[in-house]
Amino acid sequence: MRHSIIATLLLLGGCSANFEFNSNLDSETTRDYFKAGQVALFQGDTPPSGKDLGWLEATSCQQRQADPAASPAQARTELRRKTAELGGNALWVSRCVSLPADDHCLSAITCYGQALQRHED
Fold first, then answer.
1. Tens of each residue's pLDDT in the chain, 121 residues
2. Do 75 and 59 meet the contact criterion of CB atoms below 8 Å apart?
3. What predicted TM-score, i.e. pTM, was given to this entire model?
4. DSSP per position, 25-45
5. Rounded to whole angstroms, how far apart are CA atoms 82 and 75?
């Protein structure tokens, strides 16, 4: 009995050194996904104070019937990702508009916003 326990422990110990983890997640894609979460979202009549990094637009498009419908949330998330790429940490969304269906999108919503770099207080 004692010999079988020792043999089992030796076998398990030998296997643990060769453990390898593989994933289908691309590390660059994962970083891009989380960039948007680091950008504060502002709405209202006037933008908050901060350094203006430029105006942006992003469109949410439903290309096929099986795809989810276009949404302002998806367009705003894309705006936040673009803001992070510019080095911004805040986004003021001025408006979102629904677009008519066309050859490319069954439904579409475009949002417009101003990318900003705000100083932490």
1. 666 777 666 666 655 555 565 666 655 555 555 677 789 999 988 889 999 999 999 999 999 999 999 999 999 999 999 999 999 999 999 999 999 999 999 999 999 999 999 987 5
2. yes
3. 0.70
4. --HHHHHHHHHGGGSEEEESS
5. 11
